[in-house]
Amino acid sequence: MNKINPSIFKEYDIRGKYPDEIDEDAVYKIGSAFCEYLNQKKHFGKIVVGRDARLSSPELSEVFTQGVLDQGRDVIDVGLCSTPLFYFALNSSGSAGGGMITASHNPKEYNGLKLIREGGRPVYKKDGLPEVETLANLEIARKFGVGKATKEDFSRGYLDFLKKHTDIKRPLKIVADASNGSTGPILEKFLDETSVSSEKLFFEPDGSFPNHSPNPFLPESRKLLEEKVKTSGADFGFIVDADGDRIFFIDEKGNYVPGDIMFAFLLDNLAREGDLILITTRESKILFEVAQRRGADVVRTRVGHANIKTAMRAKNARFGGELSGHFYFRDFYYSDSALLMLAHVLTLVSVSNKPFSELLKPYQKYFHSGELNFETRNPQEAIEKLKKEYSSGRQSFLDGLSVDFDSWWFNIRASKTEPLVRLVVEADSQKPMEEKIKELTERIK
Known about the structure:
Layout: E1 14-17, H1 24-40, E2 47-51, H2 57-69, E3 75-80, H3 83-92, E4 97-101, E5 110-117, H4 129-136, E6 149-151, H5 155-164, E7 173-177, H6 184-193, E8 197-201, H7 223-232, E9 236-240, E10 247-250, E11 256-257, H8 259-270, E12 276-279, H9 286-294, E13 297-300, H10 305-315, E14 319-321, E15 327-329, E16 335-336, H11 338-350, H12 356-360, E17 367-368, E18 372-375, H13 379-389, E19 394-396, E20 401-404, E21 408-414, E22 420-427, H14 430-444
Parallel strand pairs: 2-3, 2-4, 3-6, 7-8, 7-9, 12-13, 12-14
Antiparallel strand pairs: 1-5, 4-5, 9-10, 10-11, 14-15, 15-16, 17-22, 18-22, 19-20, 20-21, 21-22
Helix pairs in contact: 1-2, 1-4, 8-9
């Protein structure tokens, strides 16, 4: 029996180049193994299967489904969908678990799987994924009774849920970029039903991603959107990634708005006294000031959707946010939804006559580097070096190394998916931030 390539089992999900690292045989075995894992957990019932727009996703969806059916489980096939729509289908149907065929924002030659347990709980390195990997490399016998697959469309229910959180008070004009991913169809319906005037870019799902990278975190992916917003007189613009769980905003001047600034805007308008809010080790300290003003508490946790969802559920946090454009909501099964964030932003912008950039200005108090990436063969060595050299600061090891000084701080952590270290630096003014970036860069290199 061929062993599955172990490199595809990542920190938060399953991912690799297709077909060299991940192929139909591996995904069939993972489908069967996932069912056996759920059996051991005593979670019985249907499995939801969704897929993104990648060219290999239909085939991988088919074999994953077959792996589930051969274990006697029924499948709800939701077809092409965004990852948040998949979460909605899984949770609203009360299913035992699900598999979303996606490599998220990775380049087009990649594909993978997000595995989810009952109630939207992620299956990841710390909870379940090692067991699934072990089971996938065993011979799991087919069951005598084969399951049945039925196609279901959950988009109407998801749209109704989104519209409950949308209350637009004045006409808005926006530019939307769907990145040729799987969000285009549901996003088009949402915008049409909310009477927003919109210019739509790259709404046609196309797994060859002909117009720009499926990763909107890259500045080149946002270039056309920024130009369109600037020249069209739009109130703002936004772009979602290939599977629609991340969203990035552009102000009316064509400027990119970092995820933590958008999160501060959301919290300042929606957080209530006593709320608990989760962020990671990379976001601006403005979030603590905003939360304090609202009587809410902010707690830092480790980077990554699986870590945040697990911590949110354990602590019953109301909101979670990341620099990377993930926004999490207790009202959405402790999961991330780009379109729920959009619904809130549309509503909040519409109740004010101020330009978008003016609404955001109060939160742009500090000077934040954004994520800076450095290639290194030994990430831990780089982190240890900085730990020694910045020992006079207040150090934390929650996720990599965070060091706090009175007027600046930084975090450095190893990437979970690439041979990189990721650095963020924030200071009270611009020049010190630039000086510290230069200083840290020289030491890392």
